[in-house]
Amino acid sequence: MVMERVEKALGLPRLSQIADSLEKFPDAKQLKLIKEVLVVAERVSQNAPELDQVVSLIREINSMPIEKLERLEKVLKRIEGIMKKAPEELRGFLTSLKE
């Protein structure tokens, strides 16, 4: 009763509403996955020529099952490793093909 008066006087939400909100909050594993997706999206957005491509890529990733995402991550890591070791001439040539 006292809490209700304090909540009302201060314009605070009910304690039960706060508890419900906290139950819906993502757990540590979900937060970690969200962070990883955002980090990758940031990296992609820095290298992608158009924001539309980034958005469509994120939508596609969102619709994929976890197993496919894990396989895609392995492939992307391999590609990244190959690109790091590739000579500058080859990277320049590949970039010119895109244009």
Overview of the molecule:
This protein has 99 residues and is mainly α. The protein contains 6 helices and no strands. The chain has helices spanning 2-10, 15-24, 28-47, 51-63, 66-85, 88-98. The longest helix is centred in the middle third of the chain and has 20 residues, at 28-47. The termini are far apart. The mean pLDDT is 79.
Structure summarized in a few sentences:
The protein is mainly α.
Secondary structure: number of strands: 0
- Assess the beta-strand content as a share of residues: under 5%
Regions with little confidence, pLDDT below 50 for 5+ residues: none
Coarse structural class? mainly alpha
The gross shape turns out to be elongated
Give a quick account of the main beta sheet: strands, pairing sense, barrel closure.
none
Q: Quaternary arrangement of the chains shown?
A: single chain
The H/E string reads HHHHHH
With helices defined by DSSP (H or I, 4 residues minimum), what is the helix count? 6
Rg measurement, Å: 23 Å
* End-to-end distance: 69 Å
User: Could you report the average pLDDT, rounded to the nearest whole number?
Assistant: 79
